[in-house]
Design goal:
Belongs to the FAD-binding oxidoreductase/transferase type 4 family. This protein has helices spanning 18-27, 37-44, 64-77, 129-137, 155-161, 168-171, 174-177, 207-210, 244-258, 270-279, 304-320, 333-344, 346-353, 368-379, 408-414, 417-424, 449-462, and strands at 7-8, 33-34, 58-59, 81-84, 101-104, 111-115, 120-124, 178-184, 190-193, 219-226, 233-241, 262-269, 293-301, 326-329, 355-362, 385-391, 396-403, 477-478. By secondary structure, the chain is α+β, with helices and mostly antiparallel strands. The strands form four sheets. The protein has a seven-stranded antiparallel beta sheet with strand order 14-11-13-12-16-17-15, sandwiched between helices. Strands 6-7-10-8-9 form a five-stranded antiparallel beta sheet. Bound molecules: flavin-adenine dinucleotide, D-malate and zinc ion. Zinc ion is lined by residues 390-391, 398, 432.
Length: 479
């Protein structure tokens, strides 16, 4: 790669004026233009309370045509825009850096159609993931994606972030289950790629570009997605292990013995469990004794007896061989939900404790926990909690370090150390949360400069004035 600093990302962008607001009010309903300082607070602040924008206006379009009119105008006026879904982004991508206009999709939340034979759902981008799950449950289907933020995040936000989550192990990434998208480009052009076909090799697959584009290439307004049939039999087990090596051996054994019915394989360490138990007084540790690590395995199949028989045989084998210390198979719907709640509430519980520095990395599974241990040594007693958990079945670790507050001195203990560590192992500095505002400067640890330059070429082609989510994803200086 070249060694000189060549390209600089700089565009001259404008700020919103009273005339701009008057223009937006001329075609949007009154409730779709928020300018009251109090109303703007939750839109300007991210979920972690780490990033704070200074936007003066939130626009809440109701139709794709509204989005098109807004972007056409903003492009002509060089007004920067941050597309926002449920604002659950963990890398500062969903809030303004300065005074960008916030374009919230939360008033575009209608289900457009469902084809029960093909299992294809089409809907507006602002539909909340959990609402889609509830809608599909009545039709005996499920969403191919599930995550702890389901009660707030939008399907459009999931697509824009290429969210992974708890079901990726079974149903793959959104690059596979997304069939079509409707996207409004920076100049207001509506790109109708709302295919409902599974197979369609008619030239470039444009929708793929927008999956994981984090609001920098276009605003997603509609989604067409393949939804799997609901399984008749669901089981979940909670296991404890004394060492990380035992966790890895459990994974190996689960792949062999449960392969075709396994739908999730998650792990958490005892610090992560302690954080949740301290936060959620209604939950208890499912196994008798606390150990160093825990594993959550879910199976979904078509025959309960068959799956339970397999699970019991698996449990007997891993216990008999001393691979796990203890294990519990959920005996009721409540216990099923409680075990999942333990795993899904880790991030919320950490967020309540203090300032959470989050590292979401892909690594070879054998090396994953070494990173947590190296960070524990490095941080010593300075952090409130240092813990590891995540989608180990997908090679994705969440390393979280909680300090009393966000401060440069804390960040400097962790960065660039974590990124350099991951880079040496040929891992990814972002497995599923994206790049946002947090990681453009470390993108080169996981992408070559050649690739980053191609990304910049695509960005310039689709958004030549740089109005869409500026200062996110691409680094300021490109070599
Ligand atoms: P936002 O946070 O609003 O936005 C995310 C990004 O997409 C931003 O860059 C934004 O500009 C852009 N964007 C949003 N909507 C649109 C749109 N319609 N068009 C174009 N761009 C848009 N992530 C995972 O991958 N796996 C997990 O398991 C997971 N669990 C989580 C659990 C919790 C408790 C929380 C708080 C977050 C979690 N996340 C996870 C992170 C986050 O990526 C997801 O919550 C979700 O995908 C974000 O959706 P959202 O609607 O909140 O998008
Ligand atoms: C999770 O897997 O719980 C999410 O990605 C959120 C997090 O990393 O905290
Ligand atoms: Zn995750």
């Amino acid at each position: 790669c070249g060694s000189s600093f060549g390209l600089f990302l700089s565009h001259s962008l404008s700020s919103v004026s009273e005339e701009d607001l008057t223009h937006f009010r001329s075609f949007l309903p009154k409730s779709a233009v928020l300018t009251d300082a109090e109303d703007l607070i939750p839109f300007n602040e991210d979920w972690l309370k780490k990033y704070h924008g200074n936007s003066r206006v939130v626009l809440r379009p109701k139709t794709t045509e509204h989005v098109s009119k807004i972007l056409k105008y903003c492009n002509e006026r060089r007004l920067p825009v941050v597309p926002q879904g449920g604002n659950t982004c963990l890398v500062g991508g969903s809030v303004p850096v300065k005074d960008e206009i916030i374009l919230s999709l939360n008033s575009m939340n209608s289900i457009r159609s469902f084809d029960p034979h093909a299992g294809v759902l089409t809907c507006d981008a602002g539909c909340v993931l959990e609402n889609l799950e509830v809608f599909l449950a009545e039709k005996d289907h499920i969403m191919p994606i599930d995550l702890g933020a389901k009660g707030s995040c939008h399907i459009g936000g999931n697509v824009a972030a290429n969210a992974g989550g708890l079901r990726l192990l079974r149903y793959g990434s959104l690059h596979g289950s997304l069939l079509g998208l409707e996207v409004v480009l920076a100049d207001g052009t509506v790109l109708n790629e709302m295919s409902t076909l599974r197979k369609d090799n008619t030239g470039y697959d444009l929708k793929q570009l927008f999956i994981g584009s984090e609001g920098t290439l276009g605003v997603i307004t509609g989604v067409s997605i393949l939804t799997p049939p609901k399984s008749n039999a669901m089981n979940v087990v909670f296991l404890s292990c004394d060492s990380y090596d035992q966790v890895l051996r459990t994974l190996e054994m689960a792949k062999k013995r449960l392969g075709e019915v396994m739908s999730a394989f998650e792990f958490l360490d005892d610090d992560a469990l302690g954080s949740v138990l301290g936060h959620m007084s209604n939950l208890v540790c499912p196994v008798e004794e606390r150990r160093s690590f825990y594993v959550v395995i879910e199976t979904s199949g078509s025959n309960k007896d068959h799956d339970e028989e397999k699970l019991m045989a698996f449990l007997e084998e891993v216990m008999g061989d001393g691979i796990i210390a203890d294990g519990v198979l959920a005996q009721s719907e409540t216990q099923f939900k409680d075990i999942w709640a333990l795993r899904e509430s880790i991030s919320e519980s950490l967020n309540k404790k203090g300032a959470v520095y989050k590292y979401d990395v892909s690594l070879p599974q054998s090396r994953m926990y070494d990173l947590v241990e190296d960070i524990r040594k490095r941080v010593g007693s300075q952090s409130l909690i240092t813990c590891g958990y995540g989608h180990i079945g997908d090679g994705n670790l969440h390393l979280n370090v909680v300090f009393p507050s966000f401060e440069k001195k804390h960040e400097e203990i962790l960065e660039p150390f974590v990124y350099e560590w991951v880079s040496k192992e040929h891992g990814s500095v972002s497995a599923e949360h994206g790049i946002g505002y947090m990681k453009p400067k470390v993108l080169h640890h996981s992408k070559t400069w050649e690739s980053i330059r191609v990304m910049k070429t695509i960005k310039d082609a689709l958004d030549p004035n740089g109005i869409l989510n500026p200062w996110k994803v691409l680094p300021e200086k490109i070599q």
